[in-house]
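User: Before I run my own analysis I want an independent prediction to cross-check against. Here's the chain; please return only the structure tokens and, at the end, one sentence I can use as a sanity check.
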Amino acid sequence: MGRKIVAILGSYRQDGNLETAAALMLEAARARGAETQVFHLREQHIEFCTNCRTCMQAPGEARGHCVQQDDLETILTAAEDADALILGSPVNCFNTTALFRRFMERLVGFGYWPWGQNAPKTRSKRRPRRAVLIATAAMPAFFIPLATGAPRALRLTAGLLGAKIAGKLWIGLAAQQPEARLSAAVRQRAERIGAMLA
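Assistant: Structure tokens:
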């Protein structure tokens, strides 16, 4: 059985540059026998974190579970069962989208923070899976890690989900035309990354 790859994408736009790049990665991985699954966060019912900290109270390495009943558990179960993750978001206002941030904030159950303790601790330091990070922006690609918080947010999410960074794809000048038009170089890089994950 091939590797399992789960993509979690925080784009508002269907079939935009971010989703096109992720689709190329997943297609290349499937061609090498991988099993793939995609979560478009705009299609998921994910509530805002209420900071109740219920999920952070029980000790142990296992992730704490949120009291809210929405789609988060399905996404996290799939991510924990995966061998590799693709995490992506466009850059909005110099960071990930609000869709992605809402998901990221709900990952607090990966921390242990009982009442009376000054700061949280990560429940587990193990990183059994790999992650690829994708960000798109209207600015040139080299500005994404230099001038935005998106890479840090994506890295933090990967770490909480137990993944080591295996690759990054920064796609710039994404607002030049209304439809997604990835350059041949970006398409080839996305396909190479997907093949590597498989």
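Sanity check: The chain has six helices and seven strands.
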